[in-house]
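I'm stuck. Protein, please.
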Amino acid sequence: MIAINNITKSFGKLQVLKGIDLTIGKGEVVSIVGPSGAGKTTLLQIIGTLDRPNTGSVHIDGIDVTSLSNKKLADFRNRHIGFVFQFHQLLPEFTALENIMIPAYIAGTSSSEAKQRASELLQFMGLADRANHKPNELSGGEKQRVAVARALINNPTVILADEPSGSLDSKNKAELHQLFFDLRDKYGQTFVIVTHDEQLATLTDRTIHLRDGELEQPETVEPSEQPVEGEDAVADQHSAAEQTIEQPQNEEINED
C-alpha cells in the first residue's frame, strides 16, 4: 500500500530524516509518535506529497509518487490522499456541506454528485442537521468531523492526520478516535496519524516510533512487487482533464 524507501530530508544543514524505510499495509491504522523535532510532521508531509525528499522514494498503490511532475502530483494528491490537521482549516464563508464539497469540485466531480456524497458523509458523521451551518455555528468537535468528511469526499485510499485531536476536549477526542476506526471499517482507508496522544497511539494497529530523524526499530522494505512507473500509472488511471493545484514551496518546518 505505502512503501517508503531510504527517505532523507534536510533543511539547510539540519538533517531531519535520515534514511527512513517503512511499509504500511492497506487498511492499517498506524500512529507515528516521538518527541518534538523527531521528524514526524516532515515524514507525514513527504508521504502526503506536500514535500519531496532529498533522496529515496515513496510508493502509494504501486505508484512512485516521487517521480511525478508537480501537475500530476497535484492530481494524485487530490484524488488519492485526504488530510486532517489539528485545526479544521474550514473556510468561514462556506457551510459545512460546501466545505466538504470543495475537493470534489477540484477533482472535476459534478455538483449533484459532490452534494450527494457530502450529504452521505455528513449523515455518517451524525451531522446531517448541521449541513447548512457555517464554521462559526459549529462546536469544535463538529468542525473537526466536518474536516474529516472533507478528507473523505474523493474516497481517497490514504488519510493522513497531523495531531487531529490536539485541540479537542477529552470527550470529543474519544469520539474522533473511534470515528477513525469506524471509517476504516466502513470505507477501508489506510490511516497514518501523527500524535502526541498516548491513548490514541495505543488504540492503533501499529505504533511507529521516530527519534532524531530515524525509526527506533528500523524496518526492511521488501521489493516484493515491481512498482508501476509513476507518470504512466497516473495517466492510465485518470484520463479526465487534470486539475492544477499549486505545489507548496519547501520551507523550514517547525515540528510539533
